[in-house]
Automatic annotation (TrEMBL):
Domain of life per record: Bacteria
The protein, known as: Class II aldolase/adducin family protein
GO BP: monosaccharide metabolic process
Bilayer-spanning residue ranges: none
Alphabetized Gene3D superfamilies for the sequence: Class II aldolase/adducin N-terminal domain (3.40.225.10)
Pfam families for the chain: Aldolase_II
Protein source organism: Parahaliea aestuarii
SUPFAM superfamilies, A to Z: AraD/HMP-PK domain-like
SMART domains with a match to the protein in the record: Aldolase_II
Length: 266
C-alpha cells in the first residue's frame, strides 16, 4: 500500500485515485503561485487565530525554481492584512530579490538556516503564540495526552539554548541541527517552530501544536493527566501525524479563509 492509500485509510469511501492530494504537478509559475497563495492564506489564518505578537512571527516557503530563495511575510505588515503581493522573495545571503518591504532579521536568521540545512523542508512557521510560548518556558516536550498531541510524539525536539532575539546565523544553524528530520521544535522561552513539505503542513502542525500546548497546560492545572501508552501513541501518530494528514487538515481552514477574506489573493 502506498503512502497516499495508507494515509487515507481513515476516509472510508476514497479510492486511491480520488483521495485528496497536495499539488504534485504544474509549471514553475503555477507551483510558485500556489505556494504564495497558501502562504498569504496561512498568515491570515495565524492573524485570525491570534498568533500575532506585534511584528514577531513569520512563515516561509521555498521558491520552486530558485531553491536557495524563500518567500516570507514583510516585517511590520499585520498577519491580518497580508496579501500575496506583499510577500518578499529572499536569498540565503539576506538579499530581498523580489517584493518591497522590510525583512525581519530574526526571520532570515532562523528560516534561511533551516531551508539551507534541510532540503526536505518546503515551509517553516514560527510565531509567539500565547500557549506555545507559555509551554516553552517549562523546558519540556509535549506529552501524549490526547489523540491530537500524538502527532508530535517522538517527532519534536526541545531547543533549550535561548540567547535572546535570534540574529546570529550560528543560532539558526543550531536550531536547524536540533530539528533534523522532526516536524517541530519547542524553542525554550521563545515559542514554537514547525516545518513541512508544504505551507499547508507547516501551518497545520503549528495550529495543532499550539492547541496541544493549551490542552496540556489546562490538564496539568486541573490535575495529573493520564498519558497514552507509547505503543498506542506511535500508532496514532501514523494516522494523525503523517505528512498527508498535515496537508489535508489545513484544507478546510484554507477554504474558509479564502471565502471570508478573498482579498488575500491580491
Amino acid at each position: 500500500m502506498n503512502q497516499a492509500a495508507a494515509g487515507n485509510t481513515i476516509i472510508m469511501n476514497a479510492g486511491e485515485n480520488d483521495a485528496p492530494q497536495p499539488m504534485k504537478e504544474g509549471s514553475i509559475e503555477e507551483v510558485r503561485a500556489e505556494r504564495k497563495l497558501k502562504l498569504a492564506a496561512a498568515l491570515r489564518v495565524f492573524g485570525k487565530f491570534g498568533f500575532d505578537e506585534g511584528v514577531a512571527g513569520h512563515i516561509t516557503v521555498r521558491d520552486p525554481e530558485h531553491l536557495d530563495h524563500f518567500w516570507v511575510n514583510p516585517m511590520g505588515r499585520s498577519f491580518k492584512q497580508m496579501r500575496v503581493s506583499d510577500l518578499l522573495r529572499v536569498d540565503h545571503a539576506g538579499n530581498v530579490v523580489e517584493g518591497k518591504g522590510l525583512l525581519n532579521g530574526a526571520a532570515f536568521t532562523i528560516h534561511s538556516q533551516i531551508h539551507m540545512a534541510l532540503p526536505q523542508v518546503v515551509s517553516a512557521a514560527h510565531s509567539h503564540s500565547l500557549y506555545g510560548k507559555a509551554w516553552s518556558s517549562l523546558g519540556r516536550l509535549l506529552d501524549p495526552l490526547t489523540q491530537d498531541a500524538c502527532a508530535f510524539f517522538e517527532d519534536h525536539v526541545l531547543f533549550d539554548d535561548f540567547r535572546g532575539v535570534v540574529l546570529d546565523n550560528s543560532e539558526g544553524e543550531r536550531i536547524a541541527a536540533a530539528l533534523g528530520e522532526r516536524k517541530a521544535a519547542i524553542l525554550q522561552n521563545h515559542g514554537l517552530l514547525t516545518v513541512g513539505e508544504s505551507v499547508d503542513e507547516a501551518a497545520w502542525w503549528f495550529i495543532t501544536m499550539e492547541r496541544s500546548c493549551q490542552a496540556q497546560l489546562l490538564a496539568e492545572a486541573a490535575g495529573t493527566p493520564k498519558l497514552i501508552p507509547r505503543e498506542h501513541a506511535l500508532t496514532t501518530r501514523e494516522t494523525v501525524g503523517s505528512k498527508l494528514a498535515g496537508w489535508f487538515q489545513f484544507q478546510p481552514i484554507f477554504d474558509v479563509i479564502m471565502a471570508e477574506q478573498p482579498d488575500l489573493a491580491d
